[in-house]
Amino acid sequence: GGLVGLGTAWRLLERHPHLSLTLLEKESTVGAHQSTHNSGVLHCGLYYQPGSAKARLAVEGIRQMVDFCRAEDIPHELCGKLVVATAPEELPRLDELLRRGTANGLQGLRRLDPADMRRREPHVTGLAAAEVPGEGIVDYRAVCDRLAVRIRERGAALHTGARVTALARHGREWVATTTAGQFTGEFLINCAG
To answer: Contact at 8 Å (CB) between 47 and 116?
Structure first.
């Protein structure tokens, strides 16, 4: 019932609308852990090695998250950010971030000098900065809650307070024994960390 599990369930139901799906969450609500206990940043792929799975997933993921938030009227903002170099030894790393971001397809990246930095953010000081206009913030609590609603609307069962205590394979079915009872299914996807 975190972002990964909710997102996985939503996409499965989107691609297979007749699928019978049950989502089990051990907590009393969805998104009870890291999914909603973070800074709310929408990462765009600046830091990741070009061509890596993390880079591809970040670039595609922020686009999908923004599309979802727009479609669902969920508070979010592509406000951008500055990555600031405050010491001379940080300047090559800043340039490497700009190179990586460009290689990952990020738009509008640019290196700022101290005067440009102050025009963008009056309270920042440093030697140089990377301006990253594609980064943003989102209300992940609202995202989790909306995904839960959409999953239920598509006919899926979502059980909270259902901590899995045992899994067993019986023929073609999985049996999940939980604190809320037993659940069976042909396939099992574990999105828990």
So the answer is: no
Q: Rounded to whole angstroms, how far apart are CA atoms 131 and 172?
A: 53
Chain position carrying tokens 């972002």: 3
Rounded to the nearest 5°, which phi and psi values hold at 63?
-65, -45
State the average pLDDT for the chain: 94
- Per DSSP bridges, beta strands 22-24 and 157-159 are parallel
Strand order in the sheet with 173-178: 164-170, 173-178, 181-185
What percentage of the chain exceeds 70 in pLDDT? 99
DSSP state of 167: E
- Cβ contacts of 24 within 8 Å, gap of 6 or more: 1, 159, 162, 164, 176, 178, 180, 183
